[in-house]
Amino acid sequence: MYKNMVELNDNLTEIFFEKQIDDEESRYFGGVVDAKTGIPSPSHTGVGSVLGSWLSSYVNPDSRFYHYDLLARRIDKALDYMLDQQHEDGTISPGWTNYHSPPDTGFIVTGFAHIYHLLKNDSGLEADSLTSKVKSFLERTIPAMLTGGCHTPNHRWVLTSALCHLYTIFGNDELLDRAEEWLAEGIDITKDGEWTERSNGIYNSVSNIFLYHTARIGNKPKLLNYVRKNLDMMQYLVHPDGEVVTDYSGRQDFGNVFDLSPYHLICRLMAFHDNNPVYAAMSDLAAENLSEMGPVNNHIMIGYLMFPFIKEQKVGKTALPTNYEVLINGDFPGIDNLKKMNLVGHGSKIEHSSMHESFGAPIVRFRQSEESATIMSKNASFFSLRKGNAKLLGVRVTSSFSPGIIEFDTIEKIDDGYRLKKQMEKGYRGPIPKQQLANMEDTSIWYLLPHQHRGLTHSQTFEVEIDIVKTSDSEWKLYVKSDDREDVFMQIEFLFNTDGLLKGDEITRVNERTYFWKRDELTFQSGENYIHMNTGTHEHWIENIGGAGEVNNVQAVKVNLVSPIDKTFRVWIK
Known about the structure:
The protein is α+β, with helices and mostly antiparallel strands. Helix content is 32%, strand content 22%.
């Protein structure tokens, strides 16, 4: 495995040569062009990542670029670019977001600290000069790391790791004190291992690797328990083809394709730390899909050089589970926590981030060999199912009662499956009491009125529940029911991958990738796999309810219903 890593990193090292800007008149001189923007970025995923590959090749005796003079000159120019892009306050601006950003600087600090240690122990002719520049960059970040704040939950652990790494180089006790301030907030994870951002594709691995380093340097072994919890959960969130479940993410990996690659290094480190065969197996699975080394803070080649013991194959391996039914966060008190939130005082507002109110929402993961399904609460889609190339990527419900998508609050285990429930409430607001309208003029501005003092009138409720039952090895049933309220327009939307063929006598095209399913059976074929469904209905003509919007990069099949509803969908796979 290690040899493959070295070869991949060497190939990337050479590819990046062609992308470095050599024009001394350019303000990006020494930077490496980003494949997405066409402009270099002094970020952990940009030039920071490139430097991770270049430095790994330069100091590694197993690399074909070991102590290669041309590479040293390219590294020197790239470091000059990083120093030039560093602001007077010690921060960097990635360019695509977050200007003068302490957390984005923190991402780089962890990786550059590793680079610093590798260079310091290297015997190459250029090592001292390069080490000096890396150290200079790191030293200039200290004021920002001591005073800087965050946007997102994971940024706190980015900063604790950065602070700890700076301490190993500069020995300033204030750095550890600042890390303790962040850690005093407590670790944002459920007992089943889900981080606040629910980001299986990206930010789980971010929190994991940074808490690992914080635990290692800060002598806080208890922090590793949180890393273990997440890795233990993640073994149940991998599809048969190696993709991880992103159906309910609270970040930009939502609904996109990711695999276990970002987990390779943390799984490897934890496998050796705990002598854990499951983590070793996860690390191997992650390695199967590697096409890049990762950002500088989680750079795989740097990891192998910083922690050379992980090159060895001393940890036994076991097969990862392929047949299971697991309820995650089943007893997390999410609803109670949301009630408490009203008493905290922030008014459910936080700048440049999200409250992540779906944190800890129950989900169910089902796997039976090549068949994989997910049941979700507090999410736009409540069910997904796939086998081979045939993928029912999601099922969502919209209603005209509280116009828009219904996100179910709870998942309850029933005798033969799971029940999702949602009770909606909608009323009207009376006039503001006169005593709350002192000094009002004849005209008013709506957004300046004290609306919180209006009384509720004519409150109405509408309840929807869905039972999801696995009825046989290849068959599922979705039982959709509402209460007795009449004439609520509803829509059940089935979302399929685009590289398959929809068939059915009673499906009619609405637009290029959207269909009404009016009656009878529907078949979706992709490759050798088929998803069969029955039965469609078309009780009203509305194309889109409540401004829910169309989902990109899917084929959407819509079933239109009018309450009261008692409808069963049968889904089976061949």
